[in-house]
Design brief:
Layout lengths: L2 H16 L22 H11 L22 H9 L29 E2 L13 E6 L16 E6 H8 L17 E6 L3 E6 L8 E5 L3 E4 L9 H4 L4 H20 L4 H8 L12 H9 L1 E7 L6 E5 L7 E2 L5 E6 L4 E6 L10 E2 L9 H8 L9 H4 L1 H9 L1 H4 L3 H9 L10 H13 L6 H16 L3 H19 L3 H6 L21
Parallel strand pairs: 1-2, 3-7, 10-13
Antiparallel strand pairs: 2-3, 4-5, 6-12, 7-9, 8-9, 11-12
Helix pairs in contact: 2-3, 13-15, 14-15, 15-16
This protein binds zinc ion.
């Protein structure tokens, strides 16, 4: 969809979203719950009271056809569970009745404007529009190295950012220039394609988000009496509406270039009641690990200019990681990516799930994955079904085989090498089964006294650790495996070596 078409749709939706229903007025914030109230005993008690038969009609007109007698409605039965943590799943697909329920009166959560980089400036529960790294209002985007991000956060989340060690570091950049191009991918719209050969572990890009906002409705603090009596779908529509209104406040503060970049992103939430800003955020937002409210009540998502262009595949070749100190998302290759290959990530947390489970997790994104793994579910599911049996401790197997001359020399190696090939075919190098199988192979070569293969697999273990998990203590410990002759003093060294 072109930018002008997106803008046209945005204007249409905006008109709808700015129209407050007739005979309604913005209510002052009254009886607003503290975040987490619902999960507290007091909150549960209050909510069950509010949703009990005959209780709701005292303060809010109840649209339910029958709220008296013994027959309980869906709302009465499930509302407390449904609203636990204020994080119900939002609508997806085509929703028949979008928009606000009749007679519903919106409320406006109070939003404070940040005007300093003082971590103690706001209370944990305050809702704040802030620029990170802190930038005076009116500053030009290009004047700040790495750019800046407009965020709608709680005071608690803002403090987490400002207190991150080293914040605000400039986002790291690849040594040889950006190794990719954003271009049209047949059947997929825009995507990101490598323009250089990339090795496992190579940095592709670090990027600050255009905007950051809560990835759930937890920030809203809706007054509970406004939601009681509504069906689940009506509550979802209310939450979508209120979240859109908050995003509008944030969007209005973005520099024009960032507004254009945001509106040019894909939106697959056109029929579920999401407003245009919310739809784009739901389609393109990435969760920012470690940025959350007190007690993990709300997590946050960022929408990016370039990273949000990455397409999904269950055969991933790159991995993203949120880095709070530079306030940027880092994208690295975790397996070799030849020039001309599309760089793809996974939108779901686990590509090692079975095909049907992955497709269910991808449903909110509004597309059917046609990657090689999804195209041959029988073959790919067979590998995934074996993952836990591949994820074994090598030592007991090695010890049993080393001295048992009734077993052939390739007793462990043959199936292990076959498993490695399967895992590489499925791009599952990040899974624990891959690392444990690499260990098994390397240890088998120790028993066989094969110096060359021990060093080769030792190096693959180090490279995999570096590419998938990055630097750290584990990587330092693994480096010994790649040293030639490191295992010559091992009690099992060469036990089965052929003379
Ligand atoms: Zn797939």
């Amino acid at each position: 969809m072109s930018i002008s078409e997106q803008r046209r749709i945005y204007k249409q939706h905006r008109a709808v979203y700015l129209t407050i229903p007739k005979n309604s007025a913005i209510e002052p914030r009254q009886r607003v719950m503290k975040r987490g109230f619902l999960t507290a005993a007091k909150g549960k008690k209050a909510l069950s009271k509010a949703t009990a038969p005959n209780a709701v009609s005292q303060s809010v007109p109840d649209p339910r056809p029958d709220h008296s007698g013994t027959k309980k409605t869906q709302t009465e039965d499930v509302l407390p569970e449904f609203l636990r943590d204020y994080n119900p799943k939002l609508s997806i697909g085509k929703v028949e009745q979008t928009g606000l329920p009749d007679g519903y009166v919106p409320w406006l959560p109070e939003v404070k404007q940040d005007d300093s980089d003082n971590p103690s400036r706001f209370r944990d529960d305050d809702l704040v529009i802030t620029t990170q790294p802190y930038t005076a209002i009116g500053a030009k985007f290009a004047d700040v190295p790495g750019g800046f991000t407009k965020c709608l956060l709680s005071g608690h989340a803002r403090r987490l950012i400002l207190r991150a060690p080293g914040f605000p570091r400039p986002p790291p950049q690849p040594k040889n220039g950006l190794p990719f191009r954003v271009m049209e991918i047949p059947g997929k719209g825009l995507g990101v394609v490598a323009t250089q050969d990339l090795k496992a572990g190579d940095l592709i890009l670090s990027e600050r988000p255009i905007l950051v906002a809560g990835s759930s409705s937890a920030l809203l603090n809706p007054p509970m009496q406004k939601l009681s009596g509504l069906t689940h779908e009506q509550i979802r529509q209310v939450l979508l509406y209120e979240m859109e209104k908050l995003l509008e406040q944030l969007f209005a503060q973005l520099p024009e270039e960032q507004q254009k970049a945001y509106m040019a992103l894909h939106n697959c939430h056109l029929e579920d009641g999401s407003g245009p800003l919310m739809g784009i955020k739901r389609t393109n937002g990435f969760n920012l690990t470690g940025l959350c409210d007190q007690g993990d009540k709300a997590t946050y998502a960022g929408v990016f200019d370039t990273l949000s262009r990455l397409n999904h595949s269950c055969n991933v070749n790159a991995k993203r990681k949120w880095d709070m100190s530079s306030f940027s998302m880092t994208l690295k290759a975790f397996r070799p990516i030849p020039a001309g290959t599309e760089i793809v990530i996974s939108y779901i947390s686990d590509t090692h799930l079975l095909t049907s489970e992955r497709q269910a997790q991808l449903a909110p994104y509004g597309f059917t994955c046609t990657c090689p793994t999804c195209s041959d579910p029988a073959a790919s599911d067979a590998v995934r079904a074996k993952l836990s049996s591949m994820n074994v401790k090598a030592e007991p197997l090695i010890a049993a085989w080393a001295h048992d001359r009734t077993l052939p020399d390739d007793h462990l190696l043959k199936p292990a090498l076959a498993n490695l090939a399967l895992l590489e075919r499925e791009c599952l190098e990040y899974h624990g089964a891959y690392m444990s199988t690499l260990f098994l192979v390397m240890r088998a070569y120790v028993v066989l006294g094969n110096v060359k293969e021990v060093a080769r697999y030792g190096a693959i273990i180090v490279d995999t650790q570096q590419a998938v998990w990055g630097p750290g203590k584990a990587l330092d410990a693994f480096r010994v495996f790649a040293k030639p002759g490191a295992f010559m003093g091992d009690p099992l060294w060469g036990v089965r070596k052929k003379i």
